[in-house]
Design a protein that fits this description.
The chain has ten helices and seven strands. It is α/β, with parallel strands linked by helices and 216 residues long.
């Protein structure tokens, strides 16, 4: 998929599953389990051991439109390495121009982290396709509605403290999508290979997102 199609897929899915684990051994199976439950856009963070190998393996195993990206990227060199490993989008917790420049060069979506309205606009003007509002749990859905009133051109993706119980509120407030980590892909479930629980959690979250969209 090209840049435009990948951005559209993220908006269409409405959820980016953040995979952060102590080992990359079960990440491919985790991604497939989440996809089975209806959440098929996954972000493998660079804080996970052997993340690049996991991204490459996940891309090879991907089926049915699953999209694999990379997260916790702090510099352009890491972004490029991840893209060469097969990452289809790049997420950074901060605004780093060199990361977005690499993404533009390779024509893949970039998501830059922001906490304040100024940071959110800076991320957008620097070329970020999406603005990761982080940590969203300290701000709440109302914050999105407030910043989108004067800046409706932003594409916010709130991340942090989001689960099936509140994802809908963020989407109704104007989020392009939501980033969900430990509430969806719990480390102990991954470590213990409890893939059925992962699939059920993904199904519950996907259902909440769909319900929120019907209210828009």
């Amino acid at each position: 998929m090209n840049l435009h199609d990948l951005c559209a897929r993220i908006r269409e899915q409405g959820v980016v599953a953040i995979l952060r684990a102590d080992s990359s051994d079960r990440l491919v199976s985790t991604a497939l389990a989440l996809a089975e439950g209806g959440v098929d856009i996954v972000e493998i963070t660079m804080t996970t051991p052997n993340a690049l190998a996991a991204i490459e393996a996940a891309r090879k195993a991907a089926s049915g439109g699953m999209v694999v990206g990379v997260g916790s990227v702090l510099d352009g060199e890491t972004a490029r390495a991840a893209l060469l490993a097969g990452a289809e989008f790049v997420v950074s917790p901060v605004v780093k121009a060199e990361v977005m420049q690499v993404c533009r060069r390779y024509q893949v979506p970039s998501m830059a982290g922001a906490f304040t309205p100024t940071e959110a606009l800076t991320a957008h003007e620097a070329g970020a396709d999406f603005v990761k509002i982080f940590p969203a749990n300290l701000l709440g859905p109302g914050f999105l509605k407030d910043i989108l009133a004067p800046m409706p051109h932003l594409s916010p993706v709130p991340t942090g403290g989001i689960d099936a119980s509140n994802a809908g509120a963020y989407l109704e407030a104007g989020a392009a999508a939501v980033g969900v980590g430990s509430a969806l892909a719990k480390k102990d479930w991954i470590a213990e290979g409890r893939f059925g629980l992962l699939t059920n959690a993904a199904r519950e979250l996907a259902s909440a997102v769909e319900a929120a969209r019907r209210k828009r």
